[in-house]
């Protein structure tokens, strides 16, 4: 995020997730983007991972 701010100071409206890393996928919400785009396959992996977490971790 700091590297992005070095280039542009506007808010993030869109995040595109091009691949899956189990540890990083839920971090996309930290960008506070209005829209997060990904493929159906990656979306399914994200949901499978999210459903294994306790509710307090969302």
Task: Reconstruct the topology from this structure.
Elements: H1 2-7, E1 14-16, E2 35-37, H2 40-51
Parallel strand pairs: 1-2
Let me know the largest β-sheet: 2 strands, parallel
Order of helices and strands: HEEH
Based on helices, strands and strand pairing, what is the structural class? alpha+beta
What best-fitting shape do the alpha-carbon axes yield? elongated
What percent of residues are in strands?
Answer: 5-15%
Flag low-confidence runs.
Answer: none
| Integer count of domains | 1
| Share of residues in helices | 25-40%
Mean pLDDT across all amino acids: 77
Compute the number of helices: 2
Task: Please state how the strands of the largest beta sheet are arranged side by side.
Answer: 1-2
Total DSSP E strands: 2
Beginning-to-end CA distance, first to last residue = 20 Å
- Cα-based radius of gyration, to the nearest Å: 13 Å
Explain this structure to me?
The protein is an alpha+beta fold. The chain has one domain. 31% of the residues lie in helices and 10% in strands. It has 2 helices and 2 strands. The longest helix is centred in the C-terminal third of the chain and has 12 residues. It starts with a helix and ends in a 7-residue tail after the last helix.
Which key terms come to mind for this protein?
single chain; 58 residues; alpha+beta; two-stranded parallel ribbon; 31% helix; 10% strand; elongated
Summarize this, please?
This protein is α+β, with helices and mostly antiparallel strands. The chain has helices spanning 2-7, 40-51; strands at 14-16, 35-37. The chain has a two-stranded parallel sheet with strand order 1-2.
